[in-house]
Amino acid sequence: MRFKLWLYHAWVKFSTAVNKVLAPVYVEYMNARALAKAEKFLQKFRSTQWYHDRHISDQKRKPDPNPKCKHTKGGTLPSPGGFRDYNVACHRFTDGRIKIWCLYSCGFVSWGGDANWTEAVRMMESSTNTQTASETAWKRGK
Ligand SMILES: [Zn+2]
Question: Of 31, 67, 74, 112, which cross-links 98 as Cys (Cβ 3.0–4.6 Å)?
């Protein structure tokens, strides 16, 4: 009986020590397995026709000059209330230059102060799109 008790205690001590050593190894192993699984999934996903088409078409996306483009969202129908939501983007670069362009890649691009600027600002002001800006060091402040 005494020996059995000793054996039990020894076993608990031993298994606790083994657990301590093996737990990180096990976690690492499980992480590696999950990563391998994710990598496999990604590989499979990237080989699908859908991803291929999408990726290629993204790479091939070129400006599609369209002088008839109204730069508005929601097609050619006028929106209720006469409100026009222009699909334009505005971005301020770190060097201070501001660019406004049509997100339909119709070719409409305006840089701050150029011939299209007044129209570009008017469209941006009535758009629900928000401005973006490159992070600048001075903006963060101290
Ligand atoms: Zn446009």
Answer: 112
